[in-house]
Amino acid sequence: MRWQLLAIGLCVWSSSILAAPFGSGQYGEGWNVAVDPDDGRLTADLTIGSDATHPACRLYVFGEPVSGGSYQLAAVGPDAKTVHAGQATVTTDGGAIRIELPTVPPECHSVAESLQQGIQRQLTAAKPWRGVRWVAAERAYFHREADDSTRRKAYVVRGDALAYTKETAAFVEAEYLKSGSTTRGWVSWADLGAMRPTAQGRTANRFPRLSEPATSAERAAWRQVLHWADHNEEHFQASMGDAATDGGIQPLLSIGSTRVLRISFGFAAYQEIFGYALIDDALGEARMLTLKGFPPDADVPYSEIFGFDSYNANDQIVQVFSKSRGMGDCGRVLQYTLQDGGLQLLQWRMRECGDEIDEGDIDTDSWPVQSGDPDQY
Question: Where is this region: Disordered (predicted)?
Answer without folding.
Answer: 357-377
